[in-house]
Amino acid sequence: MSSKAIIGSEEWIGLNELRIPFVKARVDSGAKTSSLHAVNIEAYKKGSQAWVNFDVFPIQNDGKRKVRCEAMVVDKRVVKSSSGNREERYVIRTMMTLHEKSWPIELTLTNRDSMGYRMLLGREAMQSRLIVDPSESFLGGKVDESIAMKAYDQGKRQQPGLRIGLLASNQKLYSNRRIIEAAEQRGHHIEFYNIRQCFMKLDASTPQIHYRGGDSIEALDAVIPRIRPAQTFYACALLRLFESLGVFCLNTSESIIQSRDKLFSLQLLLSKGVQIPTTGFASSPLDTNDLIEMVGGSPLIVKLLEGTQGKGVVLAETKKAAESVINAFKSLNANILVQEFIKEADGKDIRCFVIDGKVVAAMQRTAPAGEFRANIHLGGTSSIIRATAEERKLAIKATKAMGLSVAGVDIIRSASGPLVLEVNSSPGLEGIEAATQKDIAQLMIQSIERKCNYNRPAPD
Asked: Are residues 352 and 299 part of one domain?
């Protein structure tokens, strides 16, 4: 026992045969096999032996520093991830250095962009050598991130790709970080622009968009809008100017405005034959009783037109409660929708992520105990699910009705079939990437490449 080294729950690992001197790893004795973040994996033959080339971006949230690796394949395995996903992976063997000692380990290659660490150290690599103290970190040696980054500077990518602007509010949000990272990994130059710090020059000859400090935003090939509901008006005004300047916008200003107007979006969905829960809308409190009966009576859902992420949504379980809630909102001059309550959904809905007319991922969201809203922001949970053909068709139809290229479509299962609850023009990536282990951010960048007719250079 004394001959074994003690390590913490996270450690800096060296994989020198792969030219990776520093990579931060999550130590997980619950996982059998270790895994390494790898993209652009290409299999080939050396004689009769299978080999792989692959790219590693060893620093988390940094898509500029890249190491091109090659290794002999020792196996191909179906691995079940922590989210329940099954994936066939290449397995390689390489030397690992920790605590100034080196020994061979097996690594599966997979895209770990949605995970917190570029490497996972499993129990097979630790057997007979290491003991884990989960309360500690970096017992094998602390490495300053600046030193780790400097070690890869010669592999820092020169970006000949597209010039992309990310128009959003908070650069640190998971979705925005992932989009920036995915764009950089695919060789593009991407800049973050805070919506509130952009301003416009409207001029017949030289219209311009300026950013803080007065610099003009020029020569962009594409813009990715990630817009908070409260900023819809101003952000869409910016997008209209980008569009007039010939910049491709992943979602257009018109499609975002349509999706953000809850009443108009429901009318659009119905006009395209998309099924929705029975919904009522009225201006006068005198119509409250008729409104309640219109949607099948109580229990029913009352929604503020301006509400987001489950906020401003109330379940009225009795007619009296429904009357009170509706009249209270109307006394505040708030615009509301009244919608039938789908009891058989049992606090669950399905989020389909649609890109360019295709459902690329789907997850099921389940409301926490005592709650009817299946929203992760409210404590709900997510899990992978295979949407039915009818649900995928409905999600695609709803996205097209809004005119969106990228959307999150929320669907609820009712006794009469799937119904669309909402179409989100700036869907979050964290929940669906974690649930499905799919690199949604990279799929969004690939969509821009197709729309901008960009031919990506072959890997080094």
From this structure: no
Q: Which residues contact 373 (CB under 8 A, 6 or more apart)?
A: 310, 313, 347, 367, 380
What are the residues whose beta carbons fall under 8 Å from the beta carbon of 88, sequence distance 6 or more? 76, 77, 78, 79
Predicted TM-score (pTM) of the model is: 0.72
As averages over each run of 10 residues, the pLDDT of the chain (460 residues) reads 83 93 92 91 88 90 84 89 77 92 93 85 92 92 85 68 94 93 91 93 86 83 94 95 94 95 92 92 72 84 68 81 81 79 87 96 85 64 89 97 96 93 93 90 96 75
Q: Are residues 133 and 167 in the same domain?
A: no
350, 385 Cβ separation under 8 angstroms:
yes
Please state, in angstroms and as integers, the Cα–Cα distance from residue 391 to each residue in 274, 365, 402, following that order.
Answer: 11, 15, 17
Is residue 205 assigned to a domain? Answer: yes
CA distance 125 to 144: 25
- 357 Cβ partners below 8 Å, 6+ apart? 396, 399, 400
Q: Is residue 267 part of a domain?
A: no
Residues 195 and 318 in one domain: no
> Does residue 91 share a domain with residue 119?
yes
Number of domains in the chain: 4
- CATH code at 12? 2.40.70.10
**Rounded Cα gap, residues 283 and 256, in angstroms:** 25
Quote the longest CA-to-CA distance of the chain.
82
Strands (E), 84-188: 86-98, 101-110, 119-121, 130-132, 163-168
Q: Are residues 136 and 185 in the same domain?
A: no
On whether the CB atoms of residues 62 and 155 are closer than 8 A, the answer is no
Closest by CA to 339, choosing from 308, 315, 370, 369, is 315
**Distance between CA atoms of residues 78 and 290, nearest Å:** 57
CA 83 to chain centre: 15
Domain boundary among the residues 259, 294, 327 is at 259
Q: What is the pLDDT of residue 87?
A: 83
- What is the Cα gyration radius of the chain? 25
> What residue type is 178 in one-letter code?
R
Please check whether residue 459 lies inside any domain of the structure. Answer: no
Residue 430's CATH number: 3.30.470.20
Q: What string of DSSP letters covers 405-453?
A: SEEEEEEEEETTEEEEEEEESS--SHHHHHHH---HHHHHHHHHHHHTT
Q: Tell me the residue range of the domain where 103 lies.
A: 5-154
pLDDT computed for residue 242 by the predictor: 94
Phi, psi dihedral angles at 117 (to 5 degrees): -135, 150
